[in-house]
């Protein structure tokens, strides 16, 4: 929940009223991705607009993508299809691109993000594995990464089964032998699959489909996946077992986990030693999950009888690779996702498994024609460039659209409270510790606050820095700037119809340029609610106020007395500044009070000075929203 503290601190700009952060606000969408794609960073960190709202963004397609996807991209953007770029060429081109689409053959390294100069805002991976994209660098640069996680599942599973059966019956080797004019019937005696144990390592989308198909071949299927639910496995007659049990009892092992630091070289010398002698291995996941040197030794020693590999640590592997050249290895050039159906469209059998309360399992089989990877990724990238939250975001929260609709006014409230709170901090105080409180009648697990936290962070950071914050980089940026954001829930009684009653933002250990913003417990405190869909400021420090969060706000501390509203109102009226809202929060009649005035236009410095000089006004601050 909380972003951990680091050593940097934030210093509010001396004059938030005139700060340049307001310049581009009209371009911002709520979530910032669109706005980001129209913004650019100068080397010195100043932001400016490089494209107008109606200028088309540019999308670089760096690997072959199905035509239907390219067409969809062209309807929205300028599309540059440039394949086989060297890393240097990619780095050069990227500074002119708002989005990049790749498959597994392009390394989207930190240098790519650095070279983009802040313009690259979406990377689309037209497939599942995102191990070729430096996610940490993407997040640090506020770049959303989306993938196409479903369209090639069946293709990959079918390729896994193709390799399994081809390996068991020596199809590739026998084919080569026949083509060489030989007829070696005794040499290519295979092994049967029926009754053999297959260990599926990684019981996700592909692993599950492989397991289903292997069961159809009469195999006994077990699976290992630390994160998969046992009931999903049980539903198709697969037992989830420990890693050691899986590898030590299998006749065949099929790998379907992602390449991550914890799965890197997960099949290594130590683990090969635990396997049954003569085990056969299929890999359509990633080459890096196997220690390839250790596999060559295991093949030489006979521990591993055969391996069928679609993926390699380095692709393409070196021509003299001992692994690829091994007589007992069948190799394909990363073809798992390469079917017409997966890349263009596919006919998908969706299995809906429904469980009755007494654990009877019914399976409905439906057939759908579904668009392939190209369309899936094109839609995701275009949506992200339009500022929509992507359902397949890899480095940002995925928020379902119904939740988003409901949260929208609170998202705006959150950002504005962040903006107000930070502008109340006296120059020279570093913001380090922010507490956000959400009061809601919803059950704690029925309120996703990631979006709200990101927007509060955006509100806190943007007024006082040149960094553009969005959903992708909010937590990272807060952490980098040493701001610790903690969240707390107040669970209210009553009807949970609205997701939230109020949001409170507190900044601890700082001084305020408006002393009344400091609550009894010593923090700057602002609180807001949504009324009729519009965000309102409802508390400043210990004072209750009510002013809609549109336009800007003047806060005045005064001794409560008649005529104050009129005095301030007439100064503003003299220069045609429209007052949208006015409210007075006071401790008791004729005692200390805080007057909050919403204004549609920015008052001149002269008018603000005159307001400050009204004798009974003790303190005042003008805040930009
Ligand atoms: N050869 C090819 O062309 C293709 C390769 N793939 C690769 O297949 C892999 C799986 O893809 P999907 O099934 O779509 O992904 P997925 O995310 O649906 O499934 C991956 C599963 O691996 C599990 N897992 C994570 N760490 C594990 C560990 N240490 N041990 C065992 N299981 C672990 C996860 O819990 C998850 O259930 C990915 O690496 C993907 O890149 C996918 C499509 C095509
Ligand atoms: O989707 C994946 O993870 C794949 O490995 C497919 O890669 P490709 O898009 O065919 O380069």
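^ Assign residues to that structure.
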């Amino acid at each position: 929940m909380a972003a951990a503290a680091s050593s940097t601190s934030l210093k509010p700009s001396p004059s938030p009223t005139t700060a340049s952060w307001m310049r581009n606000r009209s371009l911002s969408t709520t979530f910032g991705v669109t706005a980001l794609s129209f913004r650019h960073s100068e080397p010195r960190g100043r932001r400016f607009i490089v494209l107008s709202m109606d200028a088309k963004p540019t999308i670089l397609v760096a690997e072959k993508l199905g035509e239907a996807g390219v067409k969809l991209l062209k309807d929205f953007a300028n599309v540059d299809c440039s394949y086989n770029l060297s890393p240097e060429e990619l780095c050069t081109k990227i500074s002119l691109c708002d989005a990049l689409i790749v498959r597994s053959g392009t390394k989207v390294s930190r240098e790519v993000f650095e070279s983009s100069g802040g313009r690259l805002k979406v990377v689309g991976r037209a497939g599942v594995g995102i191990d070729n994209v430096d996610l940490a660098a993407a997040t640090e640069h506020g770049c959303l990464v989306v993938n196409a996680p479903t369209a090639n599942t069946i293709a990959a599973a079918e390729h896994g089964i193709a390799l399994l059966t081809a390996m068991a019956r020596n199809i590739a080797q026998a084919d080569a032998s026949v083509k060489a004019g030989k007829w070696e019937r005794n040499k290519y005696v295979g092994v049967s699959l029926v009754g053999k144990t297959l260990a599926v390592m990684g019981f996700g989308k592909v692993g599950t489909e492989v397991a289903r198909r292997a069961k159809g071949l009469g195999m006994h299927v077990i699976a290992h996946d630390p994160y998969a639910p046992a009931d999903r496995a049980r539903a198709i007659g697969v037992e989830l077992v420990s890693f050691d049990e899986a590898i030590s009892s299998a006749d065949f092992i099929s790998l379907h986990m992602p390449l991550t630091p914890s799965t890197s070289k997960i099949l290594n010398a130590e683990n090969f030693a635990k396997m049954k002698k003569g085990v056969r291995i299929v890999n359509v996941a990633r080459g890096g999950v196997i220690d390839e040197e250790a596999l060559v030794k295991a093949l030489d020693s006979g521990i591993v009888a055969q391996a069928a590999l679609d993926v390699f640590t380095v692709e393409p592997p070196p021509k003299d690779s001992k692994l690829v050249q091994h007589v007992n290895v069948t190799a394909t050039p990363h073809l798992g996702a390469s079917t017409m159906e997966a890349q263009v469209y596919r006919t998908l059998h969706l299995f809906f498994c429904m469980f009755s309360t007494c654990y009877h399992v019914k399976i409905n089989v439906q057939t759908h024609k579904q668009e392939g990877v190209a369309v899936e990724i094109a839609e995701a990238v275009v949506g992200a460039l339009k500022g929509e939250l992507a359902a397949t975001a890899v480095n940002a929260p995925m928020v379902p659209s119904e939740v988003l609709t409901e949260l929208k006014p609170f998202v705006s409230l959150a950002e504005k409270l962040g903006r107000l709170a930070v502008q109340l901090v006296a120059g020279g105080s570093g913001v380090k510790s922010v507490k956000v409180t959400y009061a809601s009648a919803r059950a704690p697990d029925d309120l996703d606050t990631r979006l709200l936290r990101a927007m509060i962070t955006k509100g806190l950071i943007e007024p006082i820095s040149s960094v553009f914050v969005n959903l992708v980089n909010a937590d990272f940026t807060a952490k980098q700037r040493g701001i610790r954001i903690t969240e707390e829930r107040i669970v209210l009684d009553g009807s949970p119809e609205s997701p939230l009653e109020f949001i409170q933002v507190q900044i601890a250990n700082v001084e305020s340029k408006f002393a009344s913003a400091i609550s009894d417990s010593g923090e700057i405190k602002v609180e807001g609610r949504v009324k009729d869909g519009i965000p309102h400021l409802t508390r400043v420090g210990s004072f209750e106020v009510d002013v809609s969060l549109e336009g800007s706000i003047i806060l005045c501390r005064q001794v409560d007395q008649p005529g104050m509203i009129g005095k301030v109102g007439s100064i503003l009226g003299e220069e045609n500044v429209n007052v949208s809202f006015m409210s007075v929060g006071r401790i008791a009649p004729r005692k200390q009070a805080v007057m909050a005035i919403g204004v549609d236009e920015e008052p001149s410095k002269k008018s603000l000075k005159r307001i400050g000089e009204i004798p009974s006004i003790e303190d005042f601050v003008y805040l930009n929203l």
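The CA atoms of residues 230 and 240 lie 6 Å apart.
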